[in-house]
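Morning, I've got a small favour to ask if you have a moment. It would help a lot if you went through both lines with me. I owe you a coffee for this, so here goes:
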Amino acid sequence: MHASERIETFYRAFQQRDGAAMAACYTPDAIFRDPAFDLQGERGGAMWRMLCERGKDLRVEFGNVRAEGERGSADWQAWYTFSKTGRAVHNVIHAEFRFRDGLICEHVDTFNFWRWSRQALGPAGLLLGWTPALRNKVRAEAARALAAYR
């Protein structure tokens, strides 16, 4: 499968909230990073399964899929309710991929953390969303949620 097809398969599975199909797009030793998670191996697939299962009102759109050789990228957006606060979130993300043997071996999502925290956390995110302390707290809570899920 060409890298651009793999990216499209991945995001179509996300649109259907099929975390298992998303996990199948990764190599067994894949690396995933974003402002909330830093994962390797099967933990990346577990994260997608958790997010898909818990995201009852999750809506995903993607586009601008590009791939050349062993590298690729896409832009995607997610709309959902942040379960911890009940606040509506619209997150705009850029994804970079590296591929090995037709599967994703590295996936890095970037987004504006302060914008996300203002939406997800309200006043605390507005006041503290730019600080490393809040980012570290969000990462710790995300890691605990994933550990409890698994």
The longest strand covers residues 87-100. The chain has a mean pLDDT of 90.
